[in-house]
Amino acid sequence: MSKENLTQKNIETVIGLEVHLQFGTKTKIFCSCANEFGKDPNTNTCPVCLGLPGSLPVLNKTALDYAIKVGLALNCRINSLIKFDRKNYYYPDLPKGYQISQYDFPIGHDGHVEVKSKKGSQEVRIHRAHLEEDAGKLIHCPEDQCSLVDYNRTGTPLMEIVTEPDMRSAQEAYDYLQTVKLILQYLDVSDCDMEKGSLRCDANISVRKQGDSKLGTKAEIKNLNSFKAVKAALEFEQQRQSQMLITGQEIIQETRLWDDDKGLTLPMRTKEAAHDYRYFPEPDLVPFTVEIQDIEKIRSSLPEFPNQKLSRFKADYGLSDYDAQILIQDPALAQFFEDCCKQDTPPKKVCNWIAGPLLKELNDRKSSIKDIGLSAKSFTKLIAKVENGTVSNLVGKDILYTLLNTNKDVDKIIEEEGLTQVSDDGALEEILDDVIKENGNVVTQIREGNANAIGFLIGQAMKKSKGKANPKKAGELLKRRLHNE
Ligand code: ADP
Ligand code: MG
Ligand code: ZN
Q1: Do residues 170 and 262 both lie within one domain?
Q2: Among the four residues 42, 147, 206, 355, which has the most C-beta atoms within 10 Å?
Q3: pTM value?
């Protein structure tokens, strides 16, 4: 390969991702310990997950069903032979000295995910998706005085989803992760919360001269705690590797750690120091076959997926791609939208109220529609009150705030707080009298031809009436007065 004419422009980036997903089953994968996050250290443990001699694992049926569900959702071929293997390595967070995983018969293989992005649609192939157990968690004390270990996480059902090296930029990797996360959320098998470690990602990246068929030497990046970090780490690594390629330095296969504060990756271990896991079949779990009917039963229980919902929302409700995208980001929100439409409220109106005021309130409260207990009935009632002019748009938002806090009836809130919109001419004229009196210079501007300044006076009227003035009516009255006097 001639290196002389290599520039950033003719270097191609190649990325493959490994995603780890913890299942939200009630119990762990091979014992009956509770699978809960945030409990006191080492309280959810037993001889099986602590790896005590003589204890035997028993496979959690729900974890198996979830794994098949994920495999199917990622369009994988499913191995009906369920076989587990031991992956041997020593680390203090792994009490048995081996991890029960799947080696030659992953539950899912050869799948694909359709990733939509600004640039269009792209297929990312799934190499394999296998079921395994999570390890415990080491907690390092300040100043490296000691390390503590918490085995509560040991034995949490975990699915590893490995892509083919199909992505060509950090942005594509980011889009893939968003897409897969949403699919997994729709499946309802995990809370997919990266902060709790329910969803984790390692990123593999290499560079090569455009047109080369052979893959470059890859680095695997670990310690990525958010999708933003994945993107930043890949962008950094792309630059670092390209620079090495351009200047003719040898890139070595290694594992690197992302330092989020410094914004760079640092070497952790090289290929030479990589583990030899000495896989062998797990003797304590006898291989067995899942019946095809059982797999098909799971297939028929799969939900409508984000892409399908997106198309349906556009077709059935006449929403734009932009609007539909917002609604499908949370399956519960999408359901809420549909429930509202059933209350005979125009879809576009419902969508606007969800995408604007409701999502703002949910964001402010760091909450989701699932937790807020808002009924489609009260929400659409509120929209109707704004539409028929009982209250102004502005007051409508205040009512939503109160509604979410108190869960009171919308009529009651309006009545108790005296929020009915002031539309009758007499009351409005009184407010406008004051506004005109107090803003003589603006009035002059309007009379001299600055029509836009009328917006300021309407704003003042809204303020004086605490949002209750009907802005449209106020504007009409103002125009009439200022131009006829
Ligand atoms: P390892 O044995 O180091 O775990 P794998 O072959 O299992 O490596 O691949 C792990 C991940 O790395 C996969 O997602 C794969 O697509 C990706 N990958 C493999 N080779 C490369 C490469 N040269 N450049 C970028 N990604 C790669
Ligand atoms: Mg790997
Ligand atoms: Zn246990």
Answers
A1: yes
A2: 206
A3: 0.86
